[in-house]
Amino acid sequence: MGRKLSNLDINNSNVTESVTSAISIPQVPSSSIWTKFDEQVSSVLGENNSTVGSIIEIDKYLSENLLNRQEDPLKWYSDRQNLYPRLYEMVLRRQCVPETSVPSERVFSKAGLVLNAKRTRLTTDKVETILFIQSNL
Which GO terms describe its molecular function (predicted)? Predict the structure, then answer.
């Protein structure tokens, strides 16, 4: 999941704000010995390092309380889209409900084509792998 989140292209200033707010860097005078260190930490936490941003975002998400059954998860994500921009993008891509049973019927149809009289010795694992590959091409 972390790799998928870090691959999302988010061009949003809120990402930087949420990442830097998760790990606060104290502001010290520029003549301090820590100036160079703070610059290096800021560059690691910046927009260019999406892996760190994804990890911080997942940690914050996992520390959230569980959602009640009566609440709408899509509304919950919509309300927190600035807090979890990468997760929000993933939810928009993955949390769609098919309106018909056509996708499952297609899988059954492909399974009927894979399992025929000439292919009776295929194991269930091989059939599952073949159907997975055919369904995701």
Answer: protein dimerization activity
